[in-house]
Amino acid sequence: MKTSTRVFYKDTDKMGVVYYANYLYWFEIGRAEYMRSIGCSYKELEEKNYLMPVIEALCKYHHPATYDETIEIDTSIGSISKLKLRFDYKIFRKDDMKLLAEGYTIHAYVDRNGKIQRLPQHLIDLLNSPEDNNSKSFLNN
């Protein structure tokens, strides 16, 4: 799933390049849009008492992004189980599709009390087959 955003002045450091932690923020944008695209926003997950905290993150930086560039965030599922989910990300400069950064985040499933829980099979199915989800929704299950 691909989404785009612009590099804002606030995203850059004194050297005029994007501050490294902002790439993790862009991972979050990609992840939230991915979930929304399959019919299951984070808000809907939370309403069903499923929280997905990040338990591991990695970002490899290849080339800097700079102010006012448009970037494209390519988000996909790396792996999924009943207890954990891995999202993979690639961030490109949209003008020339140069790979700027890539990485992943791993998420556990917990309830509001922080207790680990298993993800229901119908949500695993939604996550595994995003192209088939035009008529599916987590809320309908």
Automatic annotation (TrEMBL):
Key words of the record: Hydrolase
InterPro entries: 4-hydroxybenzoyl-CoA_TE (IPR050563), HotDog_dom_sf (IPR029069), YbgC/YbaW (IPR006684)
Keyword Lipid metabolism in record: no
UniProt KW Hydrolase keyword: yes
Any Pfam family the entry gives: 4HBT_2
CDD domains xrefs: 4HBT
GO MF entries: fatty acyl-CoA hydrolase activity
Domain of life: Bacteria
Matches recorded under Gene3D superfamilies: Hotdog Thioesterase (3.10.129.10)
Similarity field: Belongs to the 4-hydroxybenzoyl-CoA thioesterase family.
NCBIfam families reported for this sequence: YbgC/FadM family acyl-CoA thioesterase (TIGR00051)
Name this polypeptide is given: Uncharacterized protein
